[in-house]
Design brief:
Elements: E1 5-11, E2 14-23, H1 28-36, E3 43-54, H2 56-72, E4 75-79, H3 83-95, H4 101-104, H5 111-148, H6 155-165, H7 170-192, H8 201-239, H9 242-248, H10 253-292, H11 296-306, H12 310-316, H13 319-335, H14 341-372
Parallel strand pairs: 2-3, 3-4
Antiparallel strand pairs: 1-2
Helix pairs in contact: 1-2, 2-3, 5-10, 6-10, 7-8, 7-10, 8-10, 8-12, 8-13, 8-14, 10-13, 13-14
Amino acid sequence: MAVGSISVNSSTDGTRAALSGRLGVADVMQVNRALKGVPDDQTLVLDMAAAEWIDTSIAWAIGVKQQAIEAAGGRLQIDGALPEARQLLDTVFAALPKPDAAKADGGRPSLTQMLDRVGRSIAGAGGVLAQSLALLGMFLSRLGHSVLHPRDFRLTALVHHCQAAGLGAVPIVALMAFLIGVVLAFQGSMQLRQFGAEVFVVDLISISILRELGILLTAIIVAGRTASAFTAAIGSMKMREEIDAMRTLAIDPVAALIVPRVLALILMLPILGLIANLAGLIGGALMAWVELGISPAMFQTRLIEGTDVKHVFVGLVKAPVFALVIGIIGCQAGLRVKGTAESLGSMTSSSVVAAIFAVIVIDALFSIFFAQIGI
């Protein structure tokens, strides 16, 4: 067996490197060191006529050198390679990550590159939005089919997801709302005490929680908790090709996986919102009693007299819309998972971010709408 080696000869016309023998991973450091010694801004001729065999590590070293030479304006020429070696080199060269042009320019992307990134981001976001709308249409279609054919509806799955998305979220939602009520009462009392208007802290707490904060923060918690769970569950099934198996068995994945999840969220989020409202009012009343001496009876009286029921309506009417958006985003991200664990983690993270962003944007639109109609 011929021992592998590399020799480098420089001349005025360029540099010539010759590989000989059988070169493998034991020789990659020698080959890499020899190639690095060749300047990148000139022509390098790599003579492989005497190379009996190379493995992927040698091909990797040659490919890295080729990228460096091309980036510096030089040229790498490979002569005499056997067909097997040429095929291996082509495969490795194609698999090597392409160098980032912005890094090659010192981290300063050109205007064209910046516009290209923006365009690709907008196109990608538009594609995701189109897929979400398509999934929303399929959900409504399958839901309508279930209404017309109740025997096809998966009631057991609905109950299971109601327990997971609703009952399991009660402790964290109640605790969050209680603490928000405490904070609102404490901060409000400090400011209103300066004007002798401590009693209006009840209005501050009730309107803030019933109209905005109760359902908004509940939706954000559900987006982080449930959207990620939907993405992880459906994404794991996608990775294990279980969704393809369901289609093979004539089981509609949308009806079996998405309709029960989204419908459970639509049913449970208003209930969670009511629990958050109640917990927030209790926390605010407790802090108002401790900090301002407003008794629970006085707090209740002021709450009933000074708070219109429309604030409860404004808060709860958002809940089904938030639930629908969160469920569709979580399920759609799960369906976009590829066959790797990295893709699953990436889609889970992006679904949470997208769901929270969508909830905040929709809440802002609701606020503008209700302000325009005077509610």
